[in-house]
Amino acid sequence: MQRWWLNNDPIATAFYNALSVTFPKGEGYFVDSVREFREGASPKLAAEIQAFVKQEVMHTREHVAFNRHVAEQGYDTKLLDRDVDKALALTNNRDPIAALAVTTALEHFTAMLAHELIANPKHLEGADEQARALWLWHAAEEIEHKGVAYDTWQHATQDWTRRKRWFVKSFVMIITTWQFFVGRARGMLGLLRQDGLTGPRVWARLGWYAFGNPGMARKVARVWLSYFLPGFHPWKHDDRALIRLAESDYEAAVLPKLTPAATA
């Protein structure tokens, strides 16, 4: 892949490079936090947690390889790594439920981004084919297992009142969203600085890319807000058709078989 692998555009490339650099440590954190609550889960949820772990380990491996390419292009990613370490350390020495709440929020983020990547080809238009294939494969699997962290959260908090569960998950989502946007913006601007691109015009171009055209951040806003609705569940946003699974380790990700009457 070339240095600016997405449409030869440094802004677009920095947007995805900054996300990818966070994935290996982030997905390791997701695995640990979900696996912590496997005990006592239903057989269905326990099996889905195991499948979730396998998929996240594979994502980590592939993004480590992708991030090696980023480093080989001369980018220093130490700042991004420090930001990730700092953000994930916020739940150190806290009850494991705190890490699960963060994971549940971030899995909602990854599911939203995954939906947009597949539903709107414009996001990866002009990308290097290897990079495009990686991002679409990762997106499909994020949609496939998007309910697992939330189902684990519901299992882990089954003795809580609905009000407490809603308050904690909402508070954590707000904090996590702030950390996510600030951290990723710092990372993107840091990478662009290494391309000699700085100043208000570059900030404006990055803002337009995120919120204007193609506008990933703008387009996921409504689904982000749905997290705060009473009775929320990731699969209430039914986008299984995007992955077209014939079979899956995740029962909720399988589209029901159509009967002759349904197709008439």
From TrEMBL:
Pfam families, per the entry: Metal_hydrol (PF10118)
Name its species: Sphingomonas mucosissima
The GO molecular function terms of this record are: hydrolase activity
From the broadest rank down, the organism's phylogenetic lineage runs: Bacteria, Pseudomonadati, Pseudomonadota, Alphaproteobacteria, Sphingomonadales
Any idea what this protein is called?
Putative metal-dependent hydrolase
Q: Which UniProt keywords apply?
A: Hydrolase
Source organism, top-level taxon: Bacteria
